[in-house]
Amino acid sequence: MIGLFRFFQGYLRIRVWGFSPERFMNLCCNHNILLWDIEKCGSESYSMNISLNGYFQIRPFVRKTGTKVAVLQKFGLPFFIPHIKLHSFFLLGILGTFCFLFWTTGYIWKIETTGNQEIKTEELTAFLEEQNIEIGCKKSVVQVEELEKAIRNEFPIVTWTSVQIEGTRLWIQIKENDKILTVDKEIDTPSDLVASKDGIVSSIITRNGVPMVKAGDEVKEGDILVSGRVPIYNDAGEIIHYQLYAADADIYLECTYEFQASMPISYIRHDPTGKEYKSIYLKLFDKEFIFPDYRDKENCDVEEDRKQVQALEQWFLPFYYGVDRYSEYNPVKTKYSKEEVSEELGQEIHTFITSLEEKGVQFIEKDVKIEKGNLQWQLSADFLVIEKTGETVPIEMNEMSEENGEQN
Question: In terms of pTM, does the model score above 0.85?
Answer without folding.
Answer: no
